[in-house]
Structures are given as C-alpha cells and as structure tokens.
Amino acid sequence: MAQPPSLPIDHDTTSTTWRPVDGELVDARPIGTLPPAMQRLQAHLTVCEIIPADQWASFTNWLEAADEPCEHDESSYEPWLATHGVDLAQASKLHEAMRELAPGPCRCAAAAEIWPADLHETIRGPVVWCRPEALPRALTGQPAAGREVQLTWFFAAHRGDLGEFWDAVEEPEAHADWDDALDLLDLLCELVASDGELAWAAVDVNQRIESFYHGGDADEVERWLRERGHSLHPLEAALDRLAVFVLTSGSQPVSEVRLGVDGSAALFSAGRPEIVVVRARERTIWAEGWKPLPAGPTRIETSAGPIDLPETIVAGVHELSVPAV
C-alpha cells in the first residue's frame, strides 16, 4: 500500500483574496465562496471529523435532549465537546458547519433536524488528484532511481474515508525510491494546502492532509472514485493560481533560500529546498508565512548567490537560474 501517514500542513489554507487595510494585507474573501453543493459537503466533512463515528449517536441524542440551555452561539456545543474530550477550539468550526446543515444559526435548529445514524458511512469526500507524469518536469524533478516508475502513479489527497478502495482497486508491487517519492508527495500536498480554492477538499479541521500514491491503472483508479461518488478536483488547477519558481545553479545545488528584504526563510517544502512559491493573484510569497511581495524587485538570497524574481508574477512552474557570482 503506497499510503504514508497523514501529513501536518504548515501553510495557511484559508486566504484566497486579499486587500490592504492600514498598511497590512487582510483576507477579504467572502464567506461561502464554494458552490452550494460543495459547501454542504464541506460542512458534512467538518462535522464528521469533529464528531467520531463511534460518538455520533451520543452527540445526536444530546442534541435532541437539549438538557442545557442553548446560548445561540458556538459556546452551546462546548458542554458536549468538553465531556467527550474534544478540543473546545473546534466549537466554532462545528457551529459554522451546523449552521450550513440546519435551518438556523444555533444548536436549537440543529436539534430539530433528522440526523442519519450512518452519516459517516454515506459521506463521499472530495479527492484532489493528478498523475505526476503529467506535471512539469521542473516540478517533479529529474529522473532518478525509481523515478520512472513513481511518476506513473496516481497521486491523491482527500478528506473522508475511501472505504474499500484499497481492496477494490488492484495495485502491483511498487519498486520506487521511497525517499524520492515521499519528497514529491510532501511537495504536492503543500501545493494543495496553499491553494485556497483546493485546500478545503484535502485539509481537515486539524490542518492535516491524507494522501497516497496508487501504482495501479490510473484510469481504473479514477473511474472507481467517480463511480463511488467522490468529486475529483485536478491538482493542476493549483498551478493556474500559484507561481512555483524552481531555482537552479550551474555550480552547486540551491538551498538556504531566504527573502532578501527581511532574511526570512522561504523554504516551502523540506525535501525541495530550491523551490519558492508565490500566490500569483494575491502577490504573496511563502517566507515563514504568506507575506506581500516587496515593492520593486523581489530579491531571493540562496546558497548559490542572489536572484530576483520577475516583477510580473505569472502562475505556473518556472525554472530560474541563479546568476554565477
């Protein structure tokens, strides 16, 4: 099974639209930017991630009993969460999700709903996917031991249970360089998490992402997921919004990448230290957090010397050669 543990995501997964306010960049995305069907799916997934399947009956019974007075806000969910050892920080996320699913803003409305006992089993989560062989070679890296095999795999990041997937879709034994493969998987997951229009489909309420490679027939994998009712979202869409700069040098490998204006590390993915990522539309760069691009040229300092990013930022994958010092 080509499936590593879930990965913690370092990059902010929420900000998609920015505007300057008092000299600072503020997220100005309106609430509910997904299509209605996707908003409900996101809400269902959030509820299922906060309330485990084995506690679902207890939660719905508590809703219907309404022993505690409803405060008509997120605090109304805190008694149940506290009793069952769930982080109280999840109360606001649960409140927002229940607002989407019930005809009202609070626990009172949620208690009036008819909640299916098998909710966790019936929800079909979204899948962000790609075939690595279709990605730009600058992104996936040059051929290495096992790379030719690994690039033919089916990559996916997802929310929700995939059920009998691994038993249903045959996978031959893989013979890839796993260090190489996991570096690429980590990079792809971080790209998904950094794209505000895809992140909801793969990053759960705990800011973790489930992902895998599958070495079987990619057409069969895609067909099985679609037939089971999973919505599929191509990872390539992120490359229409992110500018990924792959820094190269004729003299040495590029590492120790920093933003010249303040010296902050621009390390986007630990396994690929030569990659710098910018959100093209917002003109923000990952450098220990998403930061506005400085006025004028964006100087990047590296182990191989300095380089300026193009002033006109265009989404996609771009190779830049660090000038010889």
Report on the structure:
With 325 residues, this protein is α+β, with helices and mostly antiparallel strands. It is 28% helix and 20% strand. Residues 14-32 have low confidence and may be disordered.
List key phrases describing it.
globular, 5-stranded mixed sheet, 28% helix, alpha+beta, 325 residues
Strand order of the largest sheet: 1-6-5-4-7
Shape: globular
Give me the number of helical elements: 11
Task: Give the low-confidence spans.
Answer: 14-32
What's the helix-strand series? EEEHHHHHHEHHEHHEHEEEEEEEEE
Instruction: Supply the helix-strand structural class.
Output: alpha+beta
Overall residue-averaged pLDDT value = 85
Report how far the terminal alpha carbons are from each other. Answer: 46 Å
Query: What gyration radius follows from the Cα positions, in whole Å?
Result: 22 Å
Sheet with the most strands, sense and barrel status: 5 strands, mixed
Helical residue percent?
25-40%
Number of DSSP-assigned strands = 15
How large a portion of the residues is in β-strands, by DSSP E?
A: 15-25%
Describe the structure concisely for a colleague.
By secondary structure, the chain is of the alpha+beta class. Helix content is about 30%, strand content about 20%.
Q: Could you give the topology of this structure?
A:
Elements: E1 7-8, E2 18-21, E3 24-27, H1 36-50, H2 56-65, H3 78-83, H4 91-101, H5 107-111, H6 119-122, E4 127-130, H7 137-140, H8 147-150, E5 154-158, H9 165-168, H10 178-194, E6 208-214, H11 218-228, E7 232-234, E8 242-248, E9 258-259, E10 275-279, E11 284-286, E12 290-292, E13 298-302, E14 305-309, E15 316-321
Parallel strand pairs: 4-7, 8-15
Antiparallel strand pairs: 1-6, 2-3, 4-5, 5-6, 8-10, 9-13, 10-11, 11-12, 13-14
Helix pairs in contact: 1-4
